[in-house]
Amino acid sequence: MLAHVRGLIDRGALRPGDRLPAERDLAVQIGVSRPTVRAGLHALAAMGVVRSRQGSGTYIPNGPPALASEPLSFLAALHGFTREDMYETRRVLEVGAAGLAAERATPEQLATMADEVTSLFAVMQEPQRFLVHDVDFHRTVAASSGNPILATLIEMVSALYYEHRRKTAERAANRDLRAAADAHRRIYQAIRARDQETARRAMHEHLIEASRYQAQENGAAPARERRRPRRGRES
């Protein structure tokens, strides 16, 4: 089933927005049972390749690619991903994305960033709503990078971050939310000015500070940038 759909995509027979044939027709085309087709569609949906619409069928999604965050959530639980792991990953991905966004963001994407920054200042008394606009701002920056692979990876990590962060968001101090809103504004201003170096630096500093804020909420030590241990001289 997966190989059949991949073949249709490779040949250009399926494109974003297209509807897949009905399960019955797919079963005939591939020569398998309908339960096998249904299981294959579920697997494709988990990978973000297709999306079901109630009463309409199964489609190849429009827009940027999206990978389901559930596998990453399971891995996080299984392997004990730490806050430090998450913020280190965000710095690796999002600092570069901010630099690319300063080069490539469209007027519409810049307008969306500006709206999210405005919303951050407007909802500082509502930490949960603040978190939603925070995550949406970072998603917009990621999409503005113009790199669909990078945007997809950031989307996966953002979903994991949101699920982790919403449990503690109510503990956020108002001064920390204001500082975070200011940081988002600096990132946006650098991107709007097409200043790649400043955009990368502003994103880096924001994520370092965000880790510190969350550590305070949790009563833990802030995540620090890791340093690789020095290797001894080879004899």
> What pattern of helices and strands is seen along the backbone?
HHHEEHHHHHHH
Q: By CATH's scheme, which homologous superfamily of the largest domain applies?
A: GntR ligand-binding domain-like
Number of distinct beta strands:
2
Strands of the widest sheet, in order across it, are: 1-2
Low-confidence blocks of residues? 221-235
**Assembly type of the shown chains?**
single chain
Instruction: Determine the N-to-C terminus distance.
Output: 56 Å
Helix content: 55-70%
Number of helices: 10
Mean of pLDDT: 83
Assign an overall shape.
Answer: elongated
Binned strand content? under 5%
Structural class: mainly alpha
* CATH fold descriptor of the largest domain: Four Helix Bundle (Hemerythrin (Met), subunit A)
What is the annotated CATH architecture of the largest domain? Up-down Bundle
CATH class of the largest domain: Mainly Alpha
Domain unit count? 2
